[in-house]
Write a structure and sequence with these properties.
single chain; 293 residues; alpha/beta; Rossmann fold; Glutamyl-tRNA Synthetase, domain 3; 2 domains; 3-stranded parallel beta sheet; 3-stranded antiparallel beta sheet; 9 helices; 12 strands; 32% helix; 18% strand; globular; binds glutamic acid; binds zinc ion
């Protein structure tokens, strides 16, 4: 028996949601609900310098206006710092992680960390913490993008799990929280495809089971820039919920009936749950979206 489906949407509160976020939220919601699963919300608020006041509230109100209903309590990463620290302690004490004091300047000519501090046994104070990666390929089969693999040693290198400024890295927090919340299926934007092998490695180190992955295309604007909260991409207007849900369904290659435009967001979501078909999602990592909304 497979485990009951638990999915999630995990926005960073660095701004309001845009059409690209809606596509990711919608795909994760439909995939969870079509499987009779749960859909959880996690607010990834571990990077205060990037956060915008009021963004969390704005994201949640937008999701509600677009008809999304989440299950259970919202998990805030800012409430999990002590747990992250315990894992850092463990990885540091068993020699899998180490302190790195290299400056940005020292590393500016390297695309991959040159392991300067790997065996230097530096103290943890005022240092970043890096995890040793093995000279191995990590791979998985994405439900849309197919086979994806990365040689961690050659393509990524020892990566940071806690920054020198004291903040925890996304790669660590996401793995700990997906495990904590019992996530079985991760559905998110394809910009995170090349983070996944790092996350598989951390899951393996920490003895967590591997979720299934589905990466949906991310949207680029006419200039080829990814729609993003920090690039000030247009945020989702509340009054256009039905129209933009349909646009997002079209981006995901899902069937849309003409009379759907007149329906409420809830009705559109119910229709889309019934008709959800993963095979129709375009197998691209990027899609250019030119229409203003
Ligand atoms: N917080 C990330 C973002 O907003 C998503 C993380 C994930 O889905 O793994 O891009
Ligand atoms: Zn270093």
């Amino acid at each position: 028996m497979p485990k009951p489906y638990i999915g999630r949407f995990a926005p960073t509160p660095s701004g309001g949601l845009h059409l690209g976020s809606l596509v990711a939220a919608l795909a994760s919601y439909l995939d969870a609900k079509a499987a009779n699963g749960k859909w959880l919300i996690r607010i990834e608020d571990i990077d205060p310098p990037r956060e915008v006041v009021g963004a969390t509230e704005n994201i949640l109100r937008t999701l509600e206006a677009y008809g999304f209903e989440w299950d259970g309590e919202i998990l805030y990463q800012s409430s999990r710092l002590a747990d992250y620290e315990l894992v850092i302690d463990k990885l540091f004490n068993n020699g899998l992680a180490y302190a790195c004091t290299c400056s940005r300047k020292q590393l500016e000519n390297y695309s991959i960390y040159p392991n300067f501090c790997r065996d230097a046994l530096k103290p943890r104070l005022d240092a970043a913490i890096r995890i040793r990666v093995p000279e191995l390929i990590y791979q998985f089969i994405d439900r849309v993008q197919g086979n994806f693999s990365q040689h961690l040693g050659q393509e990524v290198g020892d990566f940071i799990i806690k920054r020198r400024d004291g903040f925890f890295a996304y790669q660590l927090a996401v793995v700990l929280d997906d495990s904590e919340q019992g996530i079985t299926d991760i559905v998110r934007g394809a910009d995170l495809l090349d983070s996944t092998p790092r996350q598989l490695y951390l899951q393996e180190l920490l003895g967590f089971s591997m979720p299934k992955y589905l990466h949906v295309p991310i949207l680029l604007d006419v200039n080829g820039h990814k729609l993003s909260k920090t690039q000030c991409s247009p945020i989702l207007p509340i009054v256009e919920a039905s129209k933009l849900l349909i646009t997002a369904l079209e981006v995901l290659g899902q069937p849309v009936e003409t009379n759907l435009y007149k329906e409420t967001p809830q009705q559109i979501l119910n229709y889309a749950i019934t008709n959800w078909c993963v095979d129709l999602i375009p197998k691209n990592q990027f899609m250019v979206y030119t229409h203003p909304y």
